[in-house]
Write a structure and sequence with these properties.
heterodimer, A: alpha+beta, two-stranded antiparallel ribbon, 6 helices, elongated, B: alpha+beta, seven-stranded antiparallel β-sheet, 12 helices, 52% helix, 14% strand, globular
Chain lengths: 160, 334
């Protein structure tokens, strides 16, 4: 790849490419993600659509929050089973509400920890209206009790 | 923040970048492509496993093997240790930092909060150097980030001690012995030989050139595995991510390997090897075209049978080219 072809100006997602310089030598050049530069909006649209569709399935009781988070975070079933220490057979059962609603709080927390959400988020979604998302954010504050989290809706500081 | 004097620099890949930076810090002048090539990193593998949400491919050898192969071929000795008990791993890291020793650790990429959220997936084989700490935070040097970054101790510890496929177990390493006289020429030849061997001679149907052919064969069946057309589009566009964005230096490490071959040719004064580096750069350009093609058809949802057959054919051509390339390379160093 010629050096001039490697010029991609996308500050959010820099990366290093190895290129052919003008003198014929090969070396590194700081560039950026071509995919993110051209198609990031498409990715966010897909994520939005999946979120909407999966929440609709949750609403109808067709899937459980375990399945919702696994798909949204693109985790493999085997990997999720290994991360939570739950067998794949049980994990598959937990994709459905019938088994999910019988789950102990302890087990629920094991899933929440892997999904990196407060355990309450396995049963509750706090959503900021799209028009306010640039201004507001949700800040999760842990307490000494591992099952209790305080969700604070805060105004974003400039530049964050 | 107590910070160790450490030269932070972006690199193409996290593991080769981290090993290179630590070797440089220890006084061994070596480039990232040279580390990559001597460690025989160039590779291909196509995997279908429950550990992944969808079939995927890799374009380098097994994580961790860069350090191991560098140790074997250059005679460098690394301190390396994983930990059953997290507190022991935390204490060891803190004690090394107190001794002003920068140290690499293995983490789950998901928790690297200084990187954009959309790229952070659960992937347990990310490597970075820890180069300082205070009471609450660690200072990290990550090849994928322009500047040094801070991570809270809570987050770094979580990232080091998660479970799952290839769990990091708090793994730490740093070079603790660099030989005075290193036979680079011998190491280069061994590195090339092993890489070429693994690309064409491993008797496993999903690795090396056979893996590229399997990828070509299987990609036409991806629509049956996808939830819907948007999911299929996402997975097809991830071909671009695996080849370009996941720390490869572009074209699935082929540009990085071409650079290694050029540096090797200069060191060995070998014109034939210089020619091979040009060929590898051209092979990289063809892989990059596959990346662009996958991104375009994915974005346009142009994912009918005919288009996927076209993609499959492009990948098959790469298998032919890499079969010829690595066969010739193997003969050169045999």
């Amino acid at each position: 790849m010629k050096e001039k072809e490697a010029h991609i100006d996308f500050d959010l997602h820099p990366l290093v490419l190895y290129v052919e310089k003008e003198d014929g030598s090969y070396g590194s050049k700081e560039s950026a993600s071509y995919l993110a530069d051209h198609y990031l909006d498409d990715y966010f649209e897909k994520v939005k659509k999946w979120n909407f569709e999966l929440k609709d399935q949750l609403d109808k009781g067709e899937i459980s929050p375990v399945y919702y988070y696994m798909i949204m975070l693109e985790l493999g079933e085997g990997d999720l089973a290994s991360r939570t220490g739950i067998s794949r057979r049980k994990l598959k059962k937990h994709f459905k509400m019938e088994a999910f609603e019988k789950m102990s709080l302890k087990l629920l927390k094991r899933y929440a920890d892997v999904f990196d959400v407060p355990v309450s988020n396995m049963l509750h979604f706090t959503v900021i209206n799209e028009k306010d998302q640039e201004k507001l954010k949700i800040n999760y504050q842990d307490t000494n009790n591992p099952y209790i989290t305080i969700s604070k809706i805060e105004v974003k500081n400039e530049g964050n | 923040m107590k910070e160790i004097n450490f030269k932070h620099k972006m690199a193409a890949h996290c593991e080769s970048g981290t090993v290179t930076a630590l070797l440089n810090h220890s006084g061994l002048e070596i480039t990232e492509p040279m580390v990559f090539g001597i460690a025989s990193c160039i590779f291909f593998g196509y995997f279908e496993s429950s550990n992944f949400p969808f079939p995927m491919f890799i374009v380098r050898n097994k994580p961790g093997s860069i350090r191991k192969n560098i140790a074997k071929r250059l005679g460098v000795k690394f301190y390396n240790k994983s930990f059953k008990k997290p507190q022991q791993g935390i204490d060891k890291l803190d004690s090394l930092l107190s001794d002003s020793q920068p140290v690499a650790t293995q983490v789950d990429f998901f928790y690297m909060e200084y990187l954009p959220a959309y790229i952070r997936t659960h992937m347990n084989v990310h490597f970075l150097s820890i180069i300082g700490r205070n009471e609450t935070n660690y200072l990290v040097s990550d090849s994928y980030h322009r500047e040094k970054a801070e991570l809270s101790a809570e987050v770094l510890n979580k990232a080091r001690f998660v479970g799952g496929h290839m769990a990091p177990k708090g793994f730490l390493f740093y070079p603790d012995y660099i030989p005075e006289n290193i036979d680079f020429n011998k190491a280069i030849v061994k590195g090339i030989k092993k890489a070429a061997h693994d690309m064409i001679k491993l008797p496993v149907p999903f690795v090396g050139v056979k893996g590229i052919r399997k990828f070509a064969r299987k990609v036409t069946g991806w629509p049956e595995l996808a939830r819907d057309v948007d999911h299929l589009s996402h997975e097809i566009m991830k071909i671009n991510i695996f080849l370009e964005d996941q720390g490869t230096g572009g074209a699935g490490f082929r540009f990085l390997y071409a650079t290694f071959l050029q540096q090797a040719a200069q060191r060995l004064n070998d014109g034939q090897l210089e020619g091979m580096s040009k060929r590898m750069m051209a092979i990289g350009d063809d892989w990059r075209n596959i990346s662009y093609f996958a991104a375009k058809i994915g974005k346009n949802r142009d994912l009918g049978k005919e288009r996927l057959n076209e993609l499959s054919q492009m990948i098959n051509v790469m298998a032919d080219k890499e079969q010829a390339f690595f066969s010739e390379l193997y003969k050169m160093v045999k």
